[in-house]
Design goal:
By secondary structure, this protein is of the alpha+beta class. 29% of the residues lie in helices and 44% in strands. It has a single domain, classed as Bacterial Protein-export protein SecB.
Length: 139
């Protein structure tokens, strides 16, 4: 069940006012939908699933006032056998539940692409990065 692709469908970034003082950053990566999507690789079609993902980063000052937002939406494509596909779709339709192994793969693929894009957009609109970047220290 490998992840075989990721594509963005939407970017949005907005800074509503200057950044002053401390900020609270709310980082939320979520699955919005799962649907069956067969993937053609050459002349062969493979059973697959398309996970619609959304990253929403909101910035608020210490009073709770909105400072800005960053939004990315995209799709993760996962190859999966028919039986497992049916189980994933049934669990999603019943209670929006996903197997932990599948969730780990899908979230990792989405996180890797979305967080980098969110860092770039935050820089471009003058907001702090939504995730902690590594610090380099010399000894």
């Amino acid at each position: 069940m490998p992840v075989v692709g990721f594509s963005f469908s939407k970017f949005s970034a907005e800074r509503n006012r200057s950044v002053e003082g401390k900020l609270r950053i709310n980082y939320n990566l979520s699955i919005k939908n799962i649907e069956k999507k067969d993937l053609a690789m050459g002349a062969v079609k493979h059973a697959g699933l398309r996970f619609t993902m959304e990253l929403n980063v909101s910035y608020a000052d210490d009073k709770g006032d909105d400072v800005g937002t960053i939004l990315t939406q995209g799709e993760v494509f996962l190859l999966e056998e028919e039986g497992a596909q049916k189980e994933i779709l049934d669990n999603w339709k019943k209670g929006k539940k996903i197997d932990k192994d599948v969730m780990k793969q899908v979230f990792s693929a989405s996180q890797n692409r979305s967080s980098v894009q969110a860092i770039i957009m935050s820089r471009d609109i003058g907001l702090p990065p939504p995730i902690q970047l590594p610090n380099i220290q010399f000894q």
